[in-house]
């Protein structure tokens, strides 16, 4: 696990341990998580997509980002400016968007998180709503839960016969 992600994981686990003994509403948990997060869920979505675009072309543009996220360019510009203020990207008005070292690190984690969750849902047999479900889960999952899900994904890829047994069981149930 990269050092910055390990620190983030350790810090969140320490803060969450006291809260784990208390029950909250979904919104309450989201508000607790918001206090600990550097980026909002929306900013994470934008950074994740910027990483995807930069992986394809080495840079991104506002119009590409807006098109891929199904938003207006003016909305994309506002979030991109906030990401630039956080040090995640380099951006000049009407110019190209490039990731900073910090943005590559955080964005890489976001892409990894997305991939782990999408694989997990695929293993469960979720088809039609997989992308939507991944997007809904990824912003609120704890690093510890993500780590365990990744471990399960690795288990299933190491022992595909177990995954097949699950799929057969699911069909029979």
Explain what you see.
By secondary structure, the protein is mainly alpha-helical. Helices cover 73% and strands 3% of the residues. α3 (41-57) packs across α5 and α8 packs across α9 (160-172). The radius of gyration is 18 Å and the shape is elongated. The model has no long low-confidence stretch (mean pLDDT 86).
Q: What is the structure about, briefly put?
A:
The chain is mostly helical. The chain has 9 helices and 2 strands; from the N terminus they run αααααββαααα.
Describe the SSE topology.
Elements: H1 3-19, H2 26-36, H3 41-57, H4 62-69, H5 73-85, E1 89-91, E2 97-99, H6 101-123, H7 130-138, H8 143-158, H9 160-172
Helix pairs in contact: 3-4, 3-5, 3-6, 4-5, 6-7, 6-8, 8-9
Annotation keywords:
9 helices; elongated; 173 residues; two-stranded antiparallel ribbon; 2 strands; 73% helix; mainly alpha
User: Treating each run of at least 4 consecutive H or I residues as one helix, how many helices?
Assistant: 9
Based on CA inertia axes, which overall geometry fits? elongated
What is the β-strand count? Answer: 2
Note the beta-strand portion: under 5%
- Helix fraction, binned, reads over 70%
Supply the helix-strand structural class.
mainly alpha
- Uncertain parts: none
Rounded average pLDDT: 86
Rg on CA atoms, Å: 18 Å
Distance between the termini: 38 Å
The strands making up the biggest β-sheet line up spatially as 1-2
- Mind summarizing the main beta sheet? 2 strands, antiparallel
Element order: H for helix, E for strand: HHHHHEEHHHH
